[in-house]
Amino acid sequence: MNRYKLSVLLICFFTIIISCDIVEEPYTNAIIQPPDTGEVLQKVLLEEFTGHQCPNCPAGAQIAAQLSELYGDQFIIIAYHAGFFANTNASFPINYKTPTGEELKNHFGVISYPSGLVNRKNNDVLGTTEWATIAADYISQEPTLKIQINRDYNTSTRELCVTVTATAIATLESMNVCVFLTESGLISPQKTKDDPDYPDGVIPDYEHMHVFRATMNGTWGTNIFAEGAVCDDIETISVNCILNSEWNVSNMDIVCFAYSIETGEVIQVEEVRIQ
């Protein structure tokens, strides 16, 4: 099935229905992602705003998961637990909030949950019914940037070093590169709505996925191609940190995305498991 038909089917379907500290070398367990096969695919970033006290958010997470299943590794998710619905109390004691998540929520003016940005198109915060249409449009585009992620992780010291190599495939303007960390498989309570399995409105052992944990280079990232780029121009950045001892590294990913300085739109995104 070609991408156009797949995109049309997807649209129809959805219509119906931190802490990091600077560290020094050495590192171990180097890996490179993605494999350098010569093929570059355009990928899509969903930045989802959610919270464990948001009863509608499990439905939003399910839509994100369906998109991820459809597009595979071309669809990448970051879930920011931010705002009122992410507050803690005796019933929801685990704190998933971060300063970066709060900063992004305030910057983009997020006021309803669940909602999200798809490649930060027009900096618009979108409801869940709009995610599929925007994602399908990006997936059908030709990529203009290639991102490679190299990482070294020391299992003894929990030291992580990430090197990002960006290669222009077309003429590009200046951009910023962000290196974020997410963790999946986090089990804790989550409010829900109209679920017959949970008549009291709480899922006690809900699995939280793609939870934003920390940024390795600030909320807004590192500038590359300051004067713009032409095809085959290459620029590299390196960042490092020590991972929080409470995080399960086996369930953590590095998400690296580049966005335009002028428009804020995400140009390309890649993801790799830490180990």
Coarse morphology: globular
Rg is 19 Å
Number of helices: 4
| Proportion of residues in β-strands | 35-45%
Task: Give the integer mean of the pLDDT values.
Answer: 90
The end-to-end span amounts to 33 Å
Fourth CATH level, the homologous superfamily: Immunoglobulins
**Proportion in helices:** 10-25%
Largest sheet: 5 strands, antiparallel
Assigned CATH architecture: Sandwich
Using the coordinates above, name the CATH class.
Mainly Beta
Number of domains: 1
CATH topology: Immunoglobulin-like
Number of E-type strands: 14
- Look at the helices and sheets and give the structural class: alpha+beta
SSE series: HEEHEHEHEEEEEEEEEE
Query: Which consecutive residue ranges, at least 5 long each, have pLDDT under 50?
Result: 1-19, 21-28, 31-37
Overview of this protein structure:
The protein has 4 helices and 14 strands. It has helices at residues 3-16, 57-71, 99-108, 128-139; strands spanning 31-33, 44-50, 75-81, 115-118, 145-154, 159-168, 175-183, 186-191, 202-208, 211-215, 222-224, 234-242, 252-260, 266-273. Helix 1 (3-16) runs antiparallel to helix 4 and helix 2 (57-71) packs parallel to helix 4. It is globular, with a radius of gyration of 19 Å. Mean pLDDT is 90; it is low at 1-19, 21-28 and 31-37. The protein is 19% helix and 35% strand. It has a single domain (3-273), classed as Immunoglobulin-like, CATH 2.60.40.10. The two termini are 33 Å apart.
